[in-house]
Design goal:
Layout lengths: L13 H26 L4 E5 L5 E5 L3 H50 L9 H74 L17
Antiparallel strand pairs: 1-2
Amino acid sequence: MVRGKTEMRRIENATSRQVTFSKRRNGLLKKAFELSVLCDAEVALIVFSSRGRLYEFASSSMQKTIDRYMTHTKEATENKKAREQGIQQWRSEAASLAKKIETLEAYKRKLSGDELGTCSFEELHELEIQLEKSLSNIRQMKQRMLLEQISELKETERMLLKENTLLREKVQPQLQLSARERPVANGQASSQYMEVETELIIGRPGSSEAQ
């Protein structure tokens, strides 16, 4: 036989309500006891009937369990409050940073020459001083970089001159030796040319007579 599902609403009949309360209360107390024994859990159960009668079960000490619950609830409340305060602080800091960023962006636009219509004379004078200071810093940095480049170029020139001098010292003896050997070579070439005989034969093709 299938047991019907009980509708979750107040039982109007007082007798049926009392019988159901007794059965469910006993079942609940039994489940609490089984949970404490099987799982080694600290369980405390408090039930008040509609007539105000108290039914309770505690695996150890009801007061000890209640004190432990109150301590845990207090810590949880304090932790929740601390988290909320931390979140509020982060939100405040985020809003402050966003405002600072907005102020810096507006100042940057003014330095670029935009949105100057809302500036007072004092603000414009301050912007002028800041721009002159920035320009001076830029020129100093530019001059420093130019001096560094010039120094590097001079060092490169010095190294090239040194290498050129070394190459000249290596090549100069070879050039002098070649200059001393050149006349001998020319004289040998002249002797060779003088030993060559030249014959000129004039006549018909195939003829052995010379004229």
